[in-house]
Design brief:
- Helices cover about 45% and strands about 15% of the residues.
- Helix 12 crosses helix 13 and helix 28 packs parallel to helix 35 (about 920-930).
- The radius of gyration is 30 Å and the shape is globular.
């Protein structure tokens, strides 16, 4: 069948089973890979079109007033689908609406074979940043002139489908063969399509970049060559050739403007390296700090033949440096240099482990089948094997754990798989690189487990350094949760999916006695039961202790810091007994795994099976150590322990955490005192222009670090107005309804002035949730598209993109939205900060650190709570102005910034801007004049 019919619908909503109706149909016909016909019509829905839909599509009630009803065109539409595949971008949506209308019109439902371009695009373009139609067409450079209109969307979907066919034609035979095995689990009826290109592939010229090993096709890893670099340029001349008039920056950037602070930062970093000193540099927004620190790092590494490590807070920023900043620098400087990106082992795919999964009869479900299909295509493209390059289905990451390089423990260097390991290749690249880009988490792992991960280095630059101490604390602490234990125990089972011991025993069916197998299964069942029982009891314990407390963390959890000697001793004794029983069962499982490995050894146990058994035993031992550390080891004043439960989650959804209360001495001893030069930089390191807080927090007092604050090149006084209302209701404990109502009214009033384009930052997820509900209630006719973290679906990046898509939109965020969210230009004109970002007084870490500081005779508020809040506030403030042309209002609902004695610390820590403290009414008048 070579006829394909593409359909796209515009509707009044998302639910055909209720009252939503079709308002426009667009159809495009493809034959012989050519668009040969099209059809389009508006439809009368017999109901009002919501304002939100009119804003999205441009289709109004007036447009459909004289349009036909669906039943009038039903036969004409269905006739177009005869002897055809039905294609849509999200087939369930379009076909669901279409068949719903056909049923209501007494017509037969369409039962054509279907091809879903969302699903096929996920498989064939696994590295695409998004699978929404307009973003996917941008990625594939398909012209899309009129998005959210049915015929235009149908045309670009047709063009997308032709691109998908081109991609299929380029895939190796082995990849297509694997896709055919997975097709039965997919939503698309793609067998004939996959099979056609598999048969055609026999005649396709082989791609030299693709290697085949044991039936697995993957992109070859380039041979690493190390060239010698000779530096014959002084550092001053080097910077002159880049930064100064007629320099390489001016030649390579169309709108280059010299920033004095950028060169100043480069010079200071070079001086720190030369004098072997540590340095702290606060580079405010607009400095261009990434370029400013990369340039001296590269020069120093090439001229001294000593690598420099660059550490970022997130793996996303790592990728940004590698894909955006480094290519620019290669155009700026006259000599070559080598850069490598290195992440933790869990980020890299293991070809060996994937192969092992594929040679077994795949016990799959939809998400796993989709995940494997995406991985197979991605392997023909990726140079790194880094899973962050693609977006897997949510449960696909559980599958990826099984096939990540984390599972490559004990790999034999003489093995053929060792030389096909993406992780080993990444390590080799790092060993030969001048610059190694990593992240804080991996850096911390290397600090406490030297030589295990990063190559040897003496100099490093830590970006986003205001997060460094928190990352150290988390790394040096412990984290354990029920789901992780449940998943691990499940992998040891013998249920319908492929589980570890069941799979291994299937290789050696007669190796163990039936009695041994029965005992194993009983032990496993007992351990699962005891573990579930423990976590349910912990859930109930926290629920009762925090009964009546309605405060939640910013991700909707109830938190409780525990101290064994202060708990209800009767109940705590029960908990300790339950923990002891779980640990006893886990030890029996460890012993059982070792015994199974010993018994199977005489049956010539496969190396990979042995590794799986021993790795599982090691993970179970980690659980034992963590449970004992949490509950059975005597509490220390140097450590904080706490539990979190999901407010509305399962009754065993418990998370256990511990962190040191102070890491200053630890960092001094194992990091700063043993490295030549560490440069720490961020846009937010100072409090009232002083580095004292961060110096003490990181344990740098005895190191006498260089310090420098580099001002932003932006003219904040002309670009920003800071407004604080003096008539907002006061928040009292448990009674903040009036405050929320005033906040929501101010948000909507400001939205009318700024046409939406507003980011609202909360410190409490509960307050965000209640404000979202009230805004929906107060808003007339869905005037603004409203997106809220934790309520609207999607990641932070997805919410940001959706927010930018709409002309009139409001974005509500908490937690991670206070930093790292860049919305430049007219997309963001107003920033609302609902409350000063103090941690709740009952936050476990704040409680413990406050107690620790009190015992040292220090003021916890002034030396911990306030500095943390000021740093957070500076990050939030920085969301508004991202370029010299940005302009807008920062509206702070919390009058404490003016009325409290500590308010001056917040105001003096941000750039000087016009500040207005007045009634809400007067502030709105001023805002209207400002715009």
């Amino acid at each position: 069948m070579q006829r394909y019919v593409v359909i796209d619908l515009e509707t009044t909503g998302n639910n055909p089973a209720k009252t939503d109706k079709i308002i426009e149909i667009g159809i495009v016909v493809i034959e012989q890979d050519t668009i040969v016909d099209s059809y389009s019509t508006l439809l009368h829905p017999n109901k009002e079109i919501p304002a939100f839909i009119t804003n999205l599509t441009g289709i109004s009630n007036e447009d459909v007033a004289d349009a036909p009803l669906f039943e009038n065109i039903a036969d004409e539409v269905t006739a177009m689908f005869e002897n055809s595949y039905l294609i849509a971008h999200n087939v369930p949506f379009d076909l669901g609406f279409l068949n719903g209308e056909l049923t209501k019109s007494d017509r037969k439902k369409l039962k054509n074979p279907v091809l879903d371009t969302v699903e096929l695009a996920r498989i064939l373009f696994p590295s695409a940043p998004s699978y929404k139609l307009n973003q996917l067409t941008d990625y594939l450079q398909i012209n899309h002139e009129n998005p959210h209109r049915a015929l235009s969307d149908a045309f670009v979907t047709a063009k997308l489908f032709l691109k998908l066919k081109e991609k299929l034609a380029s895939l190796p035979y082995e990849t297509l063969e694997q896709l055919l095995r997975l097709e039965k689990w997919l939503k698309s009826d793609a067998y004939a399509l996959f099979n056609y290109y598999k048969e055609q592939n026999v005649f396709v010229e082989k791609n030299d970049e693709i290697a085949i090993y044991q039936g697995l096709a993957y992109r070859r890893m380039n041979h690493l060559e190390k060239e010698d670099n000779v530096m014959d340029l002084s550092f001053g001349d080097y910077l002159d050739s880049i930064y100064e008039s007629n320099g390489s920056l001016e030649k390579n950037l169309s709108f280059y403007e010299k920033r004095a602070g950028q060169r100043e930062m480069s010079e200071m970093i070079f001086d720190a390296f030369q004098t072997r000193q540590h340095a702290l540099i606060e580079a405010e927004t607009g400095t261009g700090k990434s370029l400013a620190y990369l340039l001296p790092a590269i020069y120093d590494a090439v001229s001294t033949h000593k690598r420099v490590v660059i550490s970022t807070y997130t793996t996303q920023l790592q990728t940004q440096l590698l894909e955006e900043e480094i290519p620019l620098i290669r155009r700026l400087i006259p000599f070559p240099f080598r850069v490598a990106l290195l992440k933790g082992k869990g980020h890299y795919i293991s070809l060996e482990k994937l192969h092992q999964e594929l040679v077994e009869p795949l016990q799959s479900n939809y998400d796993i089948a989709l995940t494997v299909a995406m991985l197979l295509v991605w392997l023909t493209e990726t140079k790194t094997g880094d899973i962050d390059e693609i977006q897997l289905p949510s449960s696909g990451y559980l599958f990826f754990r099984r096939i990540s390089a984390d599972m490559e423990e004990g790999v034999d260097p003489s093995s053929q798989w060792f030389y096909r390991s993406h992780y080993q290749y990444a390590k080799k690249r790092a060993q030969q690189a001048h610059i190694v880009i990593t992240n804080h988490a991996l850096l911390c792992t290397d600090i406490f487990h030297p030589s295990s991960l990063l190559p040897v280095y003496e100099r490093a630059i830590i970006d986003e350094a205001h997060h460094f101490d928190a990352t150290v604390s988390k790394h040096y602490g412990l984290k354990l949760d029920y789901m992780h234990m449940h998943y691990t125990l499940n992998q040891l089972g013998r249920t319908d999916e492929q589980k570890l011991v069941h799979t291994i025993l299937s290789h050696y069916p007669s190796a163990l006695s039936e009695e041994t197998k029965v005992l194993w299964n009983k032990l496993l069942d007992d351990t699962r039961y005891e573990t579930d029982d423990l976590f349910r009891y912990l859930f109930q314990y926290v629920s009762k202790v925090r009964k009546g407390d309605k405060s939640f963390s910013d991700i909707g959890r109830t938190q409780y810091r525990f101290e064994a000697n202060k708990e209800d001793q009767n109940k705590w004794t029960v908990i300790k007994e339950m923990v002891s029983r779980v640990c006893l069962h886990l030890r029996d499982l460890v012993h059982g795994l070792v015994m199974i490995e010993a018994e199977l050894r005489v049956n010539q146990l496969h190396q990979e099976d042995k590794e799986k058994l021993l790795a599982s035993a090691e993970q179970l031992q980690i659980f034992i150590d963590q449970l004992e550390q949490f509950f059975l080891v005597e509490d220390s004043a140097q450590e904080v322990k706490w539990m979190e439960i999901e407010a509305y989650g399962a009754k065993n959804a418990v998370y256990l955490y511990s962190e040191p209360t102070d890491i200053a001495n630890l960092l001094t001893d194992v990091f700063f005192s043993v490295k030549e030069s560490i440069v720490l930089t961020s846009a937010t390191l100072t409090i009232e222009n002083s580095f004292q807080y961060i110096v003490e927090r990181l344990g740098l007092q005895t190191e006498n670090p260089l310090t420098k604050k580099i001002a932003s090149p932006f003219s904040y006084a002309d670009q920003v107005q800071l407004m604080v209302p003096n008539d907002f209701p006061t928040i009292t404990s448990g009674h903040n309804d009036d405050f929320i109502h005033a906040t929501c009214e101010a948000v909507l009033s400001l939205a009318e002035i700024t046409n939406g384009r507003m980011l609202v930052l909360f410190t409490s997820y509960d307050m965000l949730r209640r404000s979202h509900s009230l805004l929906k209630e107060l808003m007339e006719n869905d005037t603004y598209a409203l997106f809220a973290q934790g309520i609207s679906s999607g990641s932070r990046e997805r919410l940001k993109k959706n927010f930018q898509t709409f002309d009139k939109a409001i974005l509500l965020g908490t937690s991670s939205f206070w930093e790292g969210v860049d919305i430049p230009g007219e997309d963001l004109s107003c920033l609302v900060i609902v409350r000063l970002p103090f941690q709740p007084p009952d936050h476990p870490v704040l409680e413990a650190k406050s107690k620790f500081l009190k015992e040292q005779g220090k003021n916890p508020f002034m030396q911990y709570a306030l500095p943390n809040a000021v740093i957070r506030f500076k990050q939030g403030f920085g969301r508004l102005i991202r370029s010299s042309s940005d302009r807008g209002i920062v509206f702070i609902c919390d009058s404490r910034i003016i009325t409290a004695r500590y308010g001056k610390y917040f105001i003096r820590s941000i750039p000087k801007v016009p500040l207005f403290f007045d009634t809400t009414h007067e502030l709105m008048n001023r805002a209207e004049k400002w715009f």
